[in-house]
Amino acid sequence: MASVTSLTASVHQRLATALSATLPEADADPLLRRSDRADFQANGILALAKKAKANPRELATQVVDKVVTGGVIKDIEVSGPGFLNITVTDRAITENLAARAADPEGRLGVPYAETPGTTVIDYAQPNVAKEMHVGHLRSAVIGDSVVQLLEFTGETVVRRHHIGDWGTQFGMLIQYLDEHPHELDHKAGQVTGEEAMSNLDRLYKAARRKFDADEEFKTRARRRVVDLQAGDPHTLAMWQKFVDESKIYFYSVFEKLDMEIRDPDIVGESGYNDMLAETCRLLEESGVAVRSEGALCVFFDDIKGPDGNPVPLIVQKSDGGYGYAATDLSAIRDRVFNHKANALLYVVDARQSLHFKMVFETARRAGWLNDGVKAIQLAFGTVLGKDGKPFKTREGETVRLVDLLDEAIERASAVVREKAQDLSEGEITERGTQVGIGAVKYADLSTSASRDYKFDLDQMVSLNGDTSVYLQYAYARIQSILRKAGDVRPAAHPELALSEAERALGLHMDQFAETVAEAAAEYAPHKLAGYLYQLASFYTSFYDKCPVLKAETPEQVENRLFLCDVTARTLHQGMALLGIRTPERL
């Protein structure tokens, strides 16, 4: 793909050259930003003038004299105490968009990263034998979008779904079923998916109640864990049934979320079981971990409890059992040494931040993480209800994810049905699903991952405001215009003057590549979501002020159709990177 230099980069380069010529020894950075008074404003002159002990306005005037105009820059003027206001040419805007539209790979001129590496991303971590709830939503949605962004920019991505499929809960559940076989649903074995998972979830809760109340049962359940770890055939066979049934359920939920989950990517806690003993041995032999009251622990000078005593990371319990730390550290070894990862990304609830801080520091002390391998927790906040409290049902129970998604689809379908003019009932159902799931995803992704957000379906499916529905309707509106154009095709006409609304739309589209690169580098889908909302807003203003099919000349019709077409393609590609569909008709 031929690289398309953005207008921002072109202007930056010309200013930097002029600044260097004016102050050869200065670290000349124009510090470009958008301005209400011009297309760009350079505000680095003030800092440079201070260093050079020069008058900033005089320095700015000297720089202007050295800037090469023409082609890209139409006008440059000094304003205020020494700012530079820069206006680009209409021709440059249209030609740059034409170059992006002509990209043979259909990437709209978005380049691949200069030095792509390998990232292992750990996201969407449901638990076997438990129903997925609203708390699983953010890890799945944020992680999937980050995967799309990284892969689009050329990164090799290894997906990992670290499901909870090992440990005490399975000894507890298997032992309970052995002792209470009559509690199995009479249809067990004949149903799969949501119904089967509901049965398993019900049995798990019953087993948990007995485990908490009956010490003798607790002892038997823990012995069953030992049987599981030792590979007892009966215990292992029951465990495998739970895992297989749970996977069918997981796949059905992720399919409803319009996410691709591949079986090889599901590597749960059990996948590292054979590495745990060696991980502990390596940590103990290296002195990174020490024995304390029989347990293998790692201590940290800056992590202490309320009593002032150190709080350790327990890698192996005093009874010989392994905790989450052993599994997570083994996973790091596997991802670094077997998958040759340069980056390990964990999309995990912010409430687990202390655990991952200790795990990462332990891995660094052991030499498994170093300057060539970074580990990052992309910590996300909590999903809140309209009342600002953690999202619960009226009965105070955690909201099932499936119920939440079904309600979103139902609400969205009602919105689509109300607006639909020529859609069949089947099309309304399909579009309602795309709009509903898109609404849920966008509400999450338009918020910085670290922040909490309120789950408000009424707002999510609104046609107004910062919602995916607003973006989807903008895309569908463009498709309608392109269909009505008939044989008239979009075509760029760089010779035409652009209106203010056309310029604003074109300049914003030219930032798409830079926005994608920034969102990928910072693991920040919300930056792309914000860009797309602004794009839809600029398009709405253009649509209101600039007749397309009734423009004054045939060339202007073609050029405005061209602007519509590139806007639609940008919306489509950007929404795809968020994991959201863009229906052709709504």
Task: Describe this structure in a few short sentences.
By secondary structure, the protein is α/β, with parallel strands linked by helices.
Number of helices in the DSSP assignment: 20
Shape: globular
Estimated share of beta-strand residues: 5-15%
Structural class: alpha/beta
Roughly how much helix do the residues carry, as a percent range? 40-55%
The residue-averaged pLDDT reads 91
Strand order of the largest sheet: 1-2-4-3
Give the end-to-end Cα distance, rounded to a whole number of Å.
34 Å
Identify low-pLDDT runs.
Answer: 186-191
Q: Could you give a short account of the major beta sheet?
A: 4 strands, antiparallel
- Radius of gyration, CA atoms, in whole angstroms: 29 Å
Tell me how many strands there are: 13
Description:
The protein is of the alpha/beta class and 586 residues long. The chain has 20 helices and 13 strands. Strand 7 and strand 8 form a beta hairpin. Among the domains are: 82 residues, Gyrase A, domain 2 (2-Layer Sandwich); 98 residues, no CATH class. The chain is globular. One of its GO terms (biological process) is arginyl-tRNA aminoacylation. Its EC number is 6.1.1.19. It is found in: Cytoplasm.
